[in-house]
Design goal:
single chain; alpha/beta; ABC transporter transmembrane region fold; Rossmann fold; 2 domains; 6-stranded mixed beta sheet; 4-stranded antiparallel beta sheet; 23 helices; elongated
Length: about 625
């Protein structure tokens, strides 16, 4: 329960006003529960027993404390009921008391609804805040975090686990605000009716809570296993949808089906254990509640038989009615205890993401940078993804403003890592990267990345309109600017040929477009951003000849008067670069123009000869 209150402390403060109103409504509802039940005593005593008639109205007095006030209240209520019985007859007096009970019940249920109405806003608001918080953290986390995590598991934490928190923890919040109030108010009234009998209840009641608590002891552990397994199931689904073409091409449907069946079977077994233990709460609490009622009837009956002055049959029957009013809250409390354990297991998985360290972050004195004027410098940088194997080893390079630098070499030689370090997708272990003399670690991340535009081998587009994909990351772009960018990217003609033009939806990852069309949209997006530094990562390698020609033409327009870092496997696309850097096993082993490197007769010449043959 300590963790439960810690979660509430984190998310409840913005909704304090709602909680105050819910608290007031619950108190009023509890008071009217007591009032409606207490109304049964005079009905039973005065209406059904002539010797309970009262003909003297007492003066209100508090001189001797609460006990005298209680006696006066009881006497005066009996007095007015006696008048009603004598004036209108017993049957009509009974009807009047019945109407009073109905009104009290109406007020009780009305205030109960108002409390629930108020708590719905709190519950859904907190759930929204958790969803927003985890999504914001998923976006903030560096790329390196996701190399260690499965996408499906991250999806499960963002959806299924949040849903479980809403269903378990937040639904229990209403119970914690309502049921204790009902129990306290009703128990207080029971103390007033019979101190001896209620003291006996206090002795027996904790035993029921202890037994139920023992049943739910291991619920949290089992629930965490279920949440982890659901993350694995979503991971398999995500991999299946992403790799459906390969699954079908290799006739691997049966293999994937067996894999998924094993995961769901494991989840079924875990859920069986979880739900069987959870569902034990209701029959256990009902059974123990019945035992308690029998014990109370026995003890209360013995008090009546012994002619205890504080208890008679009418009062005892009303007392039993009040006791029944706290049985349901007690059952709900036991069920909520189970739910909280289950919900906390889900929240711990969410919290693992929320508490993940942001390894790429700004410090308090981060500098602003608005433009790129001179040069980019890589100074003796060394980098590894796992702090064991160095992907880049003591690499240095100076890139003058306005020059095109081509990066070539075998796969795995460090080219993509080299350019990923510039926008700080990762941070170097040693050395530094400088823009106009400023270490990029000392610059604001937003300003640093605002200087750059990316066009990747796999054009990353979103399931949205063409217009929104081109303007992605650019605020307040006009339609004229978007069209101009599309024309420069050789994309305007095919956009106009689509059904809805710039408002055409392109499907998941641009699935409704060809590879060349997707790439030209990503180039148009970079053109609209108009960055001084451009990063091109294999931008034409996956295209057919005609698409490559259109894309290459768009890229040449894009690179004009910009500082460009171009990763290329097709050396023909970088012949005119100002400088070509050849990477080999994490180092730059050759630099120069195309002709200079051919004359050098080294690795570059070997790569060139292989592509020409």
């Amino acid at each position: 329960m300590k963790d439960f209150f810690r979660v509430l402390k984190l998310y409840i403060p913005p909704y304090k006003k709602n909680l105050v109103f819910a608290f007031i409504f619950n108190i009023l509802a509890a008071l009217f529960i007591v009032f409606s039940m207490a109304s049964m005593i005079p009905m039973l005593e005065v209406i059904l027993q002539d010797d309970k008639n009262v003909h003297e109205l007492l003066t209100w007095s508090f001189n001797n404390g609460f006990s005298e006030f209680g006696s006066t209240l009881k006497n005066n209520i009996y007095y007015y009921i006696t008048l009603a019985k004598e004036d209108y007859g017993p049957a009509n007096a009974l009807l009047i008391l019945g109407i009073v009970v109905v009104i009290a019940t109406l007020l009780k249920t009305g205030f109960t609804y108002l409390a629930s109405y108020t708590m719905i806003g709190v519950r859904n608001g907190v759930t929204r805040d958790i969803r927003n918080k985890i999504y914001r953290k998923l976006v903030e986390l560096p790329l390196g975090f996701y190399s260690e995590e499965r996408k499906g598991d991250m999806m499960a934490r963002s959806t299924v686990d949040v849903q479980e928190v809403e269903a378990s923890i937040m639904s229990s919040l209403d119970m914690f605000l309502k049921n204790p109030i009902i129990v306290i108010v009703v128990l207080g009234s029971m103390l007033f009716i019979s101190f001896k009998l209620t003291l006996f209840v206090f002795i027996v009641l904790p035993i029921m809570g202890f037994i139920i608590g023992r049943i739910g002891k291991n619920l949290k552990k089992t629930s965490r296993e279920g949440q982890n397994k659901m993350g694995e199931i979503l991971g398999v689904i995500e991999e299946t949808l992403s790799g459906l073409r390969i699954i079908k091409a290799f006739n691997a449907e049966k293999r994937m089906d067996n894999r998924f069946w094993n995961e769901t079977e494991s989840y079924r077994r875990i859920n069986n254990r979880l739900q069987r233990r959870r569902d034990l709460a209701h029959p256990t609490s009902e059974f123990l509640g019945t035992i308690m009622v029998i014990i109370i009837v026995w003890y209360g009956g013995s008090l009546i038989i012994d002619e205890d002055a504080s208890l008679n049959m009418a009062t005892f029957l009303t007392y039993l009615g009040m006791f029944y009013q706290i049985i349901n809250p007690a059952k709900a409390f036991s069920q909520a205890t189970y739910n909280i354990q289950k919900g906390m297991a889900a929240y711990e998985r969410i919290e693992a993401v929320l508490d993940a360290e942001l390894s790429i972050k700004e410090h308090d004195g981060s500098e602003k940078i608005q433009e790129f004027k001179d040069k980019i410098e890589y100074r003796n940088i060394t980098f590894s993804y796992n702090n064991e194997v160095d992907v880049l080893k003591d690499v240095s390079l100076t890139i003058p403003q306005g020059k095109t630098i081509a990066l070539v070499g075998q796969s795995g030689s460090g080219k993509t890592t080299f350019v990923d370090l510039l926008p700080r997708f990762y941070d170097v272990q040693s050395g530094g990267i400088y823009i106009d003399g400023h270490n990029i670690k000392d610059l604001r991340l937003f300003d640093l990345r605002e200087l750059m535009g990316n066009v990747n081998q796999d054009a990353i587009l979103f399931n949205d309109s063409i217009y929104n994909n081109i303007t992605f990351g650019v605020e307040n772009a006009t339609m004229e600017e978007v069209i101009d960018a599309a024309k420069v990217a050789n994309a305007h003609d095919f956009i106009e040929a689509t059904e809805d033009g710039y408002q055409t939806k392109i499907g998941d990852r641009g699935s409704k477009l060809s590879g060349g069309q997707r790439q030209r949209l990503s180039i148009a997006r970079a053109i609209l951003k108009n960055p001084p530094i451009l990063i091109l990562d294999e931008a034409t390698s996956a295209l057919d000849t005609e698409s490559e020609r259109l894309v290459q033409d768009a890229l040449e327009k894009l690179m004009k008067n910009r500082t460009s870092l171009v990763i290329a496997h097709r050396l023909s696309t970088v012949r005119n670069a100002d400088m070509i850097c050849v990477f080999h096993e994490g180092k730059i082993v050759e630099t120069g123009t195309h002709d200079e490197l051919i004359a050098l007769n080294g690795i570059y010449n070997k790569l060139h000869s292989m592509q020409m043959s």
